[in-house]
Amino acid sequence: MGKLTIVMFQILALFLLPRNISASEYIQLSGVIHVHSTFSSGRYSPEELVARAAVKHLEVLILTDHDQVVMEYGLFPFRNLIKRREERNSVLGAGPETYLSEIERLNRQQQSVLVIPGVQSSPFYYWEGNPFNGKLTAHNYRKELLLVGLTSPDDYYRLPRLHGGFSTQYWRELLPRFFIFCSVFLLSIYLIRQPGKIRIGGILLAVLSLALMLNHHPFKSSQFDPYHGDQGNAPFIEVIDYVKNRGGLAFWAHPESNYSVTGVQLGPIEMKTDHYVDALIQTTNYTGFAALYGDTSTAANAGMHWDQTLSDYCNGRRSLPVWAIAGADFHEEQKGFDLDTFQTIFLVDKKRTANVLKALEHGRIYAVRMSHNQRLVLDRYQIKDDRTGTSAIMGEELSITGKPVIEGRLSALDGSRQEVKITIVKDGTISWSFEGQTPLAFNLVDNAELSGKHYYRLDAKGKTAGHLLSNPIFVIRNTK
Ligand SMILES: [Zn+2]
């Protein structure tokens, strides 16, 4: 109670003081990540989406059509030769050249909405059951990544995923199995040269081994297949590293999606994907994850998965921090969800694609969920060293010698008064929590003894103005 009184006094004091201009020179761009167009499962063309985004005052549109939508079931031992393949619209189906040039055209045609290319990728799934007894389940098809900022068609063609095209990427890994059938083939040639029944056996063996060589050719787009059960995170790590190496960014799409947890029947196949929120902790090198989206998400609750990754980063057990974004997963408006319901706000100095991607890469972003046509705005969120006066914003690290002062200001988009509850999570625990009305400014001094690296992130819930999640600010204090 005492702490709260102090905070309220501080808030009051701030309102009485003249407002100083924010140290940050960044402008805020409202954007949406995870949007589908007619290139895959969306209702609107990219051009129609740009028009809708402009009406909603969104300035960044990150399209994430499915890279490829394919499922295959093949019969043993010729799974790649005797198979049934189902395919839907996708970027690879239409050709990444067409996708990228349409995005380029839209950016040339208008300046109000920056369109940035991305894809949603399901690089792996595995089969369980048997098609002949009527129970065949595809697992983990919905364990997905959003891949943002890959600019060359080749980047998309070479994605390490199941059922992609011809690829020379894994020939080394796939060669040993291929060689086994090669040697059987060579043996069959020897047998064909023998007289009588041996010769007939040799011919049969030659046909069989040739078919198996074709079936196991080493030029596949993945070193995995869907017939050997769950491969854990390995196929996904492959994609994350690939995207990183090509200068793109990877985000876990919707780790607690309920869409197919209990099983969705698609024709003769049941699709099933459990929550994969543990992948946030088990994998590294990815840029972030959707913390706000259409399902209830617990990963960003205090002390949960996200905080564990951030603490791991502070303790040196992880080399990169993990950022939170909002995932629109927009196909068309439905049940109160529209293109602008889930927004990611970018802090940039210029409205350019490269600057937006930099903000995304470095955590200079915050996530919001709109409610009642209203959203919260984080006018200011920074930490200042009370001794030196130096400060840092989201995604940055501040080396301090004094005490950290957490300064913030929150308002509603239309400037109205909105009831909000603000929580500051420090190192995974709720350290401050207070309520008030927007516009709400606060100023908190952390009196705790600090050593090493710490982080502070803000979580604000409006009574009717939605939800806002900041990214963390890191503070480092080297005690000698
Ligand atoms: Zn999607």
Supply the key terms.
single chain, 480 residues, alpha+beta, four-stranded mixed β-sheet, 25 strands, 26% helix, binds zinc ion
How is this structure best described in words?
26% of the residues lie in helices and 31% in strands. Strand 12, helix 10 and strand 13 form a beta-alpha-beta unit. Among the domains are: 135 residues, Immunoglobulins (Immunoglobulin-like, Sandwich), CATH 2.60.40.10; 45 residues. The strands form 4 sheets. The chain has a 15-stranded mixed beta sheet that branches. A 4-stranded mixed beta sheet has the order 6-7-11-10, with no helix packed on it. It has a 4-stranded antiparallel beta sheet with strand order 17-16-19-22. It contains 11 helices and 25 strands. The relative contact order is 0.12. By secondary structure, it is an alpha+beta fold. Zinc ion binds next to loops.
Structural class: alpha+beta
The fourth-level CATH homologous superfamily of the domain at 1-23 and 369-480 is: Immunoglobulins
State the total count of DSSP E strands. 25
* CATH topology grouping of the domain at 1-23 and 369-480: Immunoglobulin-like
Distance between the termini: 35 Å
CATH top level assignment of the domain at 1-23 and 369-480: Mainly Beta
**Computed Rg:** 26 Å
Q: Describe the biggest sheet? A: 15 strands, mixed
Q: State the helical fraction.
A: 25-40%
Number of contiguous helices:
11
